[in-house]
Amino acid sequence: MGEAKADMGGESNKPKLRVALTGATSDLGTLLLPRLLADPDVDCILALDIAKPQDHEKISYRRVDLTRHDAESELVEALTEEKVDALYHLAFLLGPRRNAAFAHEVEVAGTHRVLSAVAQAKVPRLIVPSTTALYGAHGQHPALLPEASALVASPPSRFLRDKLEVERQVTAFREKHPETTVVVLRLAPLVGPTVNNPVTRFLTRKLVPTLMGFDPLWQAVHEEDAARALHLALRAPHGGDYNVVGRGVLPLSRMIREAGGSAVPLPGPVARAAIRAINASGARVLPIPMLDYIHYSWVADGSRAESELGFVPRHHARDAVASLRRAV
Amino acid sequence: MAKGVLGNDPFQRGAAARQELQKPAEPKQEPEQNDAPRTQAAPPAGEGKERKKAAKAPASPAPSAKAAPKGKTAKGRGAARSARPAAAAQPRKPREPEPVVDDRTAAIGTAASEAGSPAEVAERVSAGPIAEVGSTADTATAGPPPSDVEDLRGAAPAESEPEPARHRSRERVQVAEAAQLEREEHRGVEQTVAVEPFPARIDGSRSLEPSAITHADPNWTERAVGLAHIARDVVTQALRSETFEQLLAAAQGVARAVRTGIGAGSTAEVDPYGKDPYLEQQLMPVADFLYERYWRVSVEGAALLPQGACLLVANHSGAMPFDGPILRQALMRERPDLAEARWLVEDQVFHAPFLGTVFNRLGAIRACPENALRLLAERRPVIVFPEGVQGMGKPFAERYQLKRLGRGGFAKLAVRAQVPLIPVAIVGAEEAFPLLAKLPGRALGLPYLPVTTPPLPSKWSIRFGDPISTSQYAPDAADDPAAVQQLVDASRGAIEGMVSALLKQRKSVFGG
Predict the structure, then answer these.
(1) Which of A104, B34, B465, B479 has a 20 to 30 Å separation from B456 between CA atoms?
(2) B289-305: string of b/e by CB count within 10 Å (b at 16+)?
């Protein structure tokens, strides 16, 4: 990957990096791994997961189950032994699970274990992905949400509550351990030919119920852009929160059309009933608490990632969503 | 060909005689006798027209819409003339030696009714005399050479000038009928079938009976085809006209706006704030119409606007928030050199279904300090209505009385961003959308549902005042209530002064 080399610029004199990943086989892990492998500065990749990733000379694998109580000590051991320079904590679920208790265990408890292991092993850099959905979709929001906006995910959805809890833990960790550079990447809805999450499932339906009279602005980030941003975070000059968004914004109706379906605007109560009915039938179109996201715009300002991280999205939201159609 | 057919028509000879009979029979048309030489001259003109049309009929069976006005005088004359015999047609009918009941005659009647005529018997009856007039003249002039025809055609408009207006108006009513029927004639003539155009039997709904129409006459089908051709040509001509194009464009724009409002729009691209440049472009005909013709917006003081960022503070009025888009349009027209202006709308409008969505696509942005500062940092003029919904929700009796200018947020913004305040007065919006009543609109997420008239054509005036500088304050003076209050008062005074000046200047609400 010539692109990866270009990203590094003239930093080839710097010492080789040893990188660890939790959730190396998760969606984001799978996207990031090839980039790290192609990066000549990355000497060694430590994959910490319950499943073994691809075989490669750079990759060393340790089985770590974050839901187990002894995961913390295993992590500390692995991180200290390998003298890891940076840890990607990618062991997250990309969508709500029926088994909410399991999701909570992986995300909240898992993050807690990872953070204390990082603190004990004194890992210099921690990179955690998050989502712009945590800003919530509210009527009181400005047109473009900066990173400093309060994280008040609109709905009482367990999935987003867990994500919010993860961010709180990370923020607390950052304050407590200034020696570790913590980079949080808040990703716009991740779409692309290989990912499968609630947003892609919502957009790729043939008929998508929307709220009549409202057409909020949505963003999307292509999976390649997301992977590139994660890779860039490895060399971010300083820590902090970054919104990672694709180029441009689109009204929801256009997104749906680009994905190959058609928006069916229904008056509020009818839309609610329709979504409930579809959800009840087993095919989850959109959790009811997420209605705010098809009601109000939620556009994050990606200018900070551009100026400080050097992340310039290559894919327009339109193309990102259109790739869903091609994938189907 | 046409001439031959018409010349062989036994009815044509009768018609010439009948005209002689008619004149003494109608003493009340005495004043029209003066026109005798003209009416003599007119039929050949009509004939010339007809012949010309018959010649080019194979190419385009219908006279084009653009050609219609040219032929108007001749045709109109024909119609006027035919109206006279028509009045006498009823008593004459029993004497009429017409043994043949031709389906064609029925078809003419049908054509007349299909053409959307009022189906007055007199008018339908006049179908016969038209042809009659034409061919009578034909026999009389014994086939004038083309040059003669041209001469006569040239003479016709000149003669039409002194014609009394009442005649002309009556003629005009029948022009369409006559034209339609004349065309119909030619179709029939072309088909080289002897036409019996005198509607001897058309004196009631009898000939319009479906049984007569559906009678298995092949000519009827041809006639229908001919009619279809005519209709198609008329429509094509109409579609080609510029006015229609504009109308269509406007309709498309509105349709697109409606679809956008519902949430099923075809927006392909928006800027980060949600503005769709194509929607604005498509709505331009509508906006132009409202701005130029309907509300006849007059603008004063636009030359005073400074370059770069500024905060335009305007009075809010009218039940519907159309003052924002109109003010924006005024800026675009008067000062195209300035950066594109945006207007801020209060939450109640921004989050209103349909309206909020359309406004957002047109460039409206939710009013909040973050958005305003961002826009000012982009060095744009920003339009604010500090009165907010209070300004729109005041009863009509309190029109043009300024409400509280919010909490002075606009002045704080101007100080923080170090941009000048421009007071703006808008007059006319109150009368365009008078607020008649407020209905509860909780179900739609609105503070109230305004009851207003459809937009009324009041005359709008916009006046831009002298810029109020904020450079004497440091940016952190935004937190100083005294400084802010000073700016608010200055803006308020300027706006109130300009509004009352514009109102005093205005002589009539709708006339300006």
Answers:
(1) B465
(2) ebbeebbbbebbbbeeb
What mean pLDDT do residues A200-222 have? Answer: 90
A299 neighbourhood in chain B, CB within 8 Å: 272
Comparing CA positions, the residue from A73, A95, A127 lying closest to residue A240 is A127
Check B269 against A144: CB less than 8 A apart: no
Under 8 Å between Cβ of A64 and A166: no
Lowest-confidence pick of A26-40, A114-128, A240-254, B109-123: B109-123
Q: Are B324 and B385 in contact (CB under 8 A)?
A: yes
A44 forms beta bridges with: A18
Distance from C-alpha of B77 to C-alpha of B32, rounded to nearest angstrom = 12
Question: What are the CA-CA distances from residue B478 to residues A105, A148, A323, B367, B378 (Å)?
Answer: 48, 22, 48, 18, 20
Of A140, A263, A297, the CB nearest to B264: A263
Which two tokens mark B327? 């003010």
Asked if pLDDT for residue A106 goes beyond 50, the answer is yes
Distance CA A218, CA A202 (A): 13
What pLDDT was estimated at residue B371?
94
pLDDT, one tens digit per residue, over A42-94 is 999 999 998 888 888 889 999 999 988 888 999 999 999 989 999 999 999 87
Name the A residues in 195-224 with CB < 8 Å from any B CB: 210-215, 217
CA A124 to chain B, closest CA, distance in angstroms equals: 35
Does residue B442 belong to the interface with chain A, where contact is any CB pair within 8 Å?
no
What are the pLDDT digits (tens) for B380-421? 999 999 998 888 888 888 889 998 888 889 999 999 999 999
Burial class (CB in 10 A: 0-12, 13-18, 19+), B482: exposed
- Could you tell me which chain B residue has the CA closest to the CA of A295? B351
State the smallest CA–CA distance between residue B478 and chain A in angstroms.
20
User: Cα–Cα distances in Å, from B418 out to A273, B189, B315, B467?
Assistant: 50, 82, 22, 13
Q: Which two tokens stand for residue B430?
A: 């109150």
For the entire predicted model, the pTM comes to 0.69
> Cα separations (Å) of B326 from B246, B317, B343?
20, 12, 10
Q: Among partner residues B262, B266, B274, which is closest to A297 by beta-carbon distance? A: B274
* Rounded CA separation A291/A303 (Å): 27
> B335 φ, ψ to 5°?
-130, 70
Quick check: A144 and B354 CB within 8 A? no
**Position B25: which residue type?**
A
Residue pair A212/A263 in contact (Cβ under 8 Å)? The answer is no
The candidate with the shortest Cα–Cα distance to B382, out of B393, B366, B404, is: B366
CB atoms within 10 A of CB A295: 24
Residues of chain B positioned with their CB less than 8 A from the CB of A140: 347, 368
Distance CA B383, CA B352 (A): 19
Give the whole-angstrom CA distance, residue A326 versus residue B183: 57
Q: Does A142 touch chain B (CB under 8 A)?
A: yes
- Residues B374, A143: C-beta atoms closer than 8 Å: yes
B372 in contact with A at a CB cutoff of 8 Å?
Answer: no
Q: Which helix (H) or strand (E) holds B166?
A: helix B165-190
